[in-house]
Specification:
Three copies of one chain form a homotrimer. The first copy, chain A, is of the alpha/beta class. Chain A has two domains: about 200 residues, Aspartate/ornithine carbamoyltransferase (Rossmann fold, 3-Layer(aba) Sandwich), CATH 3.40.50; about 150 residues, Aspartate/ornithine carbamoyltransferase (Rossmann fold), CATH 3.40.50.1370. Chain A is built from 17 helices and eleven strands. In chain A, helix 3 packs across helix 16, helix 9 packs across helix 11 and helix 9 packs across helix 16. Chain A is globular and about 60 Å long. At the A-B interface, strand 4, helix 6 and helix 7 of A face helix 4, helix 5 and helix 16 of B.
Chain lengths: ~400, ~400, ~400
C-alpha cells in the first residue's frame, strides 16, 4: 500500500478524520492534538497523576510494571529526537512493556527499496503498539488508516501513536504541556510535594488559581510563528472557558502569531493579544510558555533580522522575573538556547524540568489508556490510597 | 582463537558437522537448515503453535513472559537486517528474556583490532545465548566450535544461533517458512481463526490438503538462482514424501535453478520441473513461494538482461491470481518489489504477512527449545486447554 | 548549568571531593576509584559473590531479576565502548532493571546546541540511575555535582556512575579488577567451581595464598605509562599490607612507570620495582596484570620506538609461562593484541575471560549497593544457602 492510496482520506479537514481514529468513544490511534477533548484531557491527566502516585512506592511501581509485561512496543523514530524517544521508552517501561527500537537513520535506509507501509505492517506483526516519529507528515496518519483497513478485514491491527510528524503535529507534546498546566493550577492539591517548591505558601494567597485551566491568562513567548508546539497547546487551551492568550514574538510576518492560528483561537472565544516584549506583559499572566528561536530554520534574511534584534525582549532576565507573578509557572518544551538563563533553574516557578518528567507520566497514561488498563490503574490507585493512606493526605516525596 | 584454527572443521561436508552441533539428541547450536529433520520440524512447529495459542490470552502471555526472565540474549547483527533482528528480539521478549544488541556497523568497527572470536567469548561471558548475523560466512559456525571447545574444557559455553551468514545460510528463515507451510496445510485445524480468512469454507472442498506437507506441489518463483531462501526451504521440503517442485525463473544460467540444488532435490526423490511463466503453472500448484529479483547484486550485463525481460512472467498479476487455486497460499520472504502488487494483500491466499509473524513464533519456539523449556510450555498448554477450554475447540481471535 | 560553574569544585584534590560523593557512610555517586576503601572493596566483593552464587539457580536468578524491575537505568555512552556498555547493561538486567541507552555518537550530536548538563538533568527526570562514559574528563563529576545541587534543593536527584571519563578515570574497571584478584586469592573457597580449573589441587600446596590481597607480589606488564587501568588498580592494591609491585614496561619516559604513580605507591608503603622483561620476573610474582601497547596513541616517534623494540619482552610466550608460578592468575583488561597468544586461553591460570564476567558481577553488586538492596541480597543469600544447601559446600557448576 502506498501513501497516495490514502490521499482522499488525507485531504479531509481534521475534524472529519476524528471518527476514523477512535472506536466507539475511545481513541484507537493518536495522530492529532485535536483528538483530545476537555474530558479526555481531564481523564488522561488523572490517570497520569495516579501513575505518578503509584510510582512513589515500590509496591506501586511493581504493580505498574506488571500491567503490560506481556506486550511489546515498537519505537520507530526515523526522525531523531532522543528526548521524545526516551520519554516514550520510559513510559513503556513504567508499565512493564518491552520495547524494540529503530532510531538510526542508517538502519532505516535499509528499508529504502521497500514501501514504508509494508514496514509498518511488518512491525504490526511483531509488536502490539507503534510509536512513530517521521519527517514525512502523513506517515503516521496513513499508518493508522492501514491499521483500520486491516481491522475491517478482521486482520491483526495495532494502535499508532504519532510521536511527531514533520513540522505539523506532535500531539503527545501538547498532551504533556496540558498535563503540566493542569498540575500547575492544581498546586493546592494535597498530593503535591510540599517540599519541592514554595507553592504551599502560595495556596493561601491565591485560592482561585487552583481551580483548573479556565479563567487564566497564558503567555507564549519566542518563535511563535514557526512553533508547532505553541500551535498545538494553544489550540487545546482554547477548549477552556474565559481564556486570554498573549503572544510575545518578534514583529515579523514569519515569527509573529500566524493568522491561521489567530482565527482558530478567536473562533473558539479566546481573547488574543500580541506583544513584543515579555517584560511588558509579565505582571499580567498566570503562566509563561517559553520557546527558543529556531535558528536552524533561518534563511539568510531571517538570520540578518535576528542579528539586529534585541534578544532580551524574549528572554527571562532578572527584571522580567521580578515582574512575573510569584505563582506563574514557567514552561519550555526544550531544548533551550539562552532565553532561560541557568540561574532561573532554581526559582520555584521554573517548571520546565518537571514538564519533561510529566511527559513520561502523560505518555504512560496515554499508553495505559490505549491498552484499556486505565480503569485497572484507577481501581488499584483508589484501593491503595483508601486502605493504607488517607486519600486526602496523599504521599509525600519528590517525584 | 582465529577462524583458520577451525579450518579443518569448516572444510567438512555439512552432514559430518551435524553431530558437533547437537548434544545427545537435541540441537545445541543452530547453524545450518540441514539440522532440522522432519521430526524436529514437526516438534518446533507444534511448540510454535502452542506459544501462539498461549499468547492469545493475558494469562498465557504472562506465563510465557516469565519463563526466561532470568536469562539474557545477545543479538549481534553486524550485517544489518532490521526485519530479522526485530523478529528475534520479539521472540526473546515473548519468553521474557532480556536483550542486548549490537547492530550498528560503526560500533562493531570498534572491535576491529580484536579477533572476532575474542568478542564472541566476551559476549558468552555476559549473555546466555547469542543470535548472530554476519557477512562472514563461517563466523557463526566458528563461534559454535569455540563454544564446543569451552564446553569440553568445562568452561562457560552458550548456544549460537545463526541469523544469516553471508550468502549461504539462514536456517531460521527456512524454519519459519516451513512453519508457515505447516500452518497453510493444517488450515482445517480447529485452532485456526475462523474469521481471518475464507479457509473455513475451503475445508469442505479440499479435505486432503490438510494432511501435512507430503503429496504437494510447491512453486518457487523469481530469482531462484541467487536466492538463499529458496535453496534452504526447498531442501527442507525435500524431506517430505511425494513432493513436486516447480521453479519459475528467467531462462538465464545465473537466475534459473542451479544444478547443485537440482541434483540434491532429485536425489531426495523430488519431482523437479522448471517453467518460465508463473501464469502457465499457477493452476497446478498447492502453494507459491514468491521472491524478488535481487537487482542490487546485478552486474551491468545482468541489468541489461532484466531490462529486456518481461517482468510480468514472474509477477502475481490478476490473470495469474485467477488461475491460482483458491486455497493456494502465497508466501514471500520480503521485502518485495513489484512481483506482488498491493491489491493482492487483501486476498485470502496472501500469507506473507502472517509468514512474517510466524517468524516470531517459530524463533520463539526454537529459543524455548534451546533453553529446554519446550516441554514446560507443552505441559502448560495442555493444562490450560484441557481445563479451561475444550482443546478441540481452541481459542478464537486474530493472532 | 555549564561545566565552568563547577570549576572551583573540580579544582580540588580528589581526597577533598570524596565527602561530596557520599551520603553518611554510603557512596552516592561513583566517580573516582579512590572512593573504594578496603572495607568497601570487601563488601562489594562479597555482594558480587552472592549475586554470582544466586544466579546459579533459576530461583536465585528470578529473585535477583525482581529486585529492581520497577527502576530504569540510562546508559549514556557518548564515548563508544561496547564491552563496558554490555557489561553494565547485563549488570542492570541481572537485577531486572530496565535500560535505555544512548551510544550512537550521531544521536548525541543532536544535543549539540544544548548544554550537556541540561541533558543530564533531563535524563535524571526519566531514569533512576545514570551510567555514563564520555570523552570529557569532568562530565561525570559535574553531573554528580548537579545532582547534589538538586538534592540540596529538595528536587529529584539520581546516582551518577562514571563508566570511564576521558583518559583519567574508570573506577568500575578498577573495581572488577580487584574483585578478580579477590577471587584469585580466595581460590580455596568452597564456593569455587571444582571443575573449571586446577586450583583445587593447588590449595594443598599453597595454603597461604588464599588469605587475601595482603602480602602479595603483583606484576603489571605492557604500556604502563599510558595505562589508566594499571594506575587505578595499582592504587587500590596499595590499600593492602606488605604489597610488592613489579612494573614491566619498555624503558622509555612515556611508557614506563610514571613518577606520579610511583610516588603515590611508595607513599602508601608499596615496594615498587621495575623490570624490562616479563620472563625475568615471572617466577617471583603471584599475579600478572597484562596490558596491550596502545599503538593508536603513538606519535611517529613512538611508532619508530616500538618498531625497534623486542615485543617478546612484554609477551606471555611459552618460556614465560613455564617460569610463571603454577597458581599465578593472568589478568588483562582486554582487548588484547599479541601479548597473550591464543594458546594460553586454555591454561588454568588464564583468568582474563573470567575477569570480563566478573565485571558484570561487580557492576551488579555496585548497582545493588547504590539502590540499597545489598542487604536484601545478603539476607536472601544466607537464607537460601543455610536452608537448602550446606553453606560450606556451596553450589557447583560453571558460572
Amino acid at each position: 500500500m502506498e501513501f497516495y492510496h490514502y490521499q482522499p482520506l488525507l485531504d479531509r479537514p481534521v475534524r472529519q478524520k476524528l471518527a476514523d481514529l477512535q472506536r466507539n468513544e475511545r481513541l484507537k490511534h493518536v495522530i492529532f492534538a485535536q483528538q483530545f477533548s476537555r474530558q479526555r484531557l481531564k481523564h488522561l491527566g488523572e490517570i497520569a497523576d495516579m501513575i505518578r502516585g503509584l510510582s512513589r512506592t515500590e509496591e506501586g511501581g511493581i504493580f505498574l510494571s506488571q500491567l503490560l509485561r506481556h506486550k511489546r512496543a515498537m519505537l520507530y523514530f526515523t526522525q531523531a529526537s532522543t528526548r521524545t524517544f526516551l520519554s516514550f521508552q520510559a513510559a513503556c517501561q513504567i508499565l512493564g512493556m518491552q520495547c524494540a527500537e529503530i532510531r538510526d537513520p542508517s538502519l532505516s535506509s535499509e528499508f529504502k527499496g521497500e514501501q514504508p507501509l509494508d514496514s509498518m505492517r511488518m512491525f504490526s506483526s511483531y509488536f502490539d503498539i507503534i510509536f512513530m516519529r517521521s519527517k514525512e507528515p502523513s506517515f503516521a496518519e496513513c499508518s493508522a488508516y492501514l491499521m483500520n483497513d486491516l481491522d475491517r478485514n478482521q486482520q491483526r491491527s495495532v494502535p499508532i501513536v504519532n510521536g511527531g510528524s514533520g513540522a505539523d503535529e506532535h500531539p503527545t507534546q501538547a498532551l504533556l504541556d496540558i498535563y503540566t498546566i493542569q498540575r500547575s493550577f492544581s498546586f493546592s492539591s494535597p498530593r503535591d510535594s510540599k517540599s519541592s517548591n514554595r507553592f504551599d505558601d502560595l495556596r493561601r494567597s491565591y485560592p482561585s488559581l487552583t481551580k483548573g485551566l479556565d479563567n487564566k491568562t497564558y503567555c507564549f513567548c519566542g518563535d511563535i510563528g514557526r512553533g508547532r508546539t505553541v500551535r498545538s497547546v494553544a489550540q487545546l487551551l482554547s477548549l477552556f472557558s474565559n481564556v486570554k492568550m498573549i503572544f510575545v514574538a518578534p514583529r515579523h510576518p514569519k515569527f509573529a502569531l500566524q493568522r491561521e492560528l489567530r482565527d482558530v483561537l478567536l473562533a473558539a472565544g479566546v481573547i488574543v493579544e500580541e506583544a513584543s516584549s515579555l517584560r511588558d506583559v509579565a505582571n499580567q499572566v498566570d503562566l509563561v510558555y517559553m520557546t527558543r528561536i529556531q535558528h536552524e530554520h533561518n534563511t539568510p534574511d531571517d538570520a540578518k533580522f535576528f542579528a539586529d534584534l534585541d534578544d532580551s525582549l524574549f528572554t527571562l532576565n532578572s527584571g522580567t522575573m521580578r515582574a512575573l507573578r510569584e505563582y506563574a509557572a514557567i514552561l519550555h518544551p526544550f531544548p533551550r538556547n539562552t532565553e532561560i538563563p541557568f540561574e532561573i533553574d532554581s526559582d520555584h516557578r521554573a517548571t520546565y524540568f518537571r514538564q519533561a518528567r510529566n511527559g513520561m507520566w502523560s505518555r504512560a497514561a496515554l499508553t495505559a489508556y490505549l491498552f484499556d488498563i486505565d480503569t485497572t490503574i484507577a481501581s488499584h490507585y483508589r484501593e491503595v490510597f483508601s486502605t493504607f493512606h488517607d486519600y486526602n493526605q496523599g504521599v509525600l516525596g519528590i517525584t
